[in-house]
Amino acid sequence: MKSTIWYLFSGGILLILACTQPPDYPKEPRIEYIGINKKVITQGSRSATADTLVVTFSFTDGDGDLGSEGDARNIFIYDSRSPNDTINYGNLLPISEQGSGNGVSGEITFTLPSKPSNICCIFPDRRACLTDPRYPQDTFSFLIQMSDRAGNMSNLIRTETITILCQ
To answer: What is the pTM of this model?
Structure first.
């Protein structure tokens, strides 16, 4: 009797698992902001202590055609103080489409060092990466977007506001 109940229970679990539908992601990449390691950083300069921002976001893509080889850029980071200037952060290596018929998902973490002048203050008169006692700090956020091999662009996400100490 116990073995019959066990078989019925196991068969029911297998039936439930077999009926579970795979995720149905859209063909365009979709990203979601997860977090940043700090909200205050020292401006990058020769005399400043090296510092690093670490940003994490998640992604989904319905047809799994993310990443590319060569010099193609597919992760774009914008500085909110000058959103028309793209920082071509990088190239996500190709994700194999074999077995990705139901799409792919994952997380991406990237680091941005403050030195030598990767993260710096921009003063109202547009001077940048300098110190000026009138402007002890600056604030900004990153805007992030990615594309797939078909050229589909993801949604745009924004980090929290980051304070730069203009020392």
So the answer is: 0.78
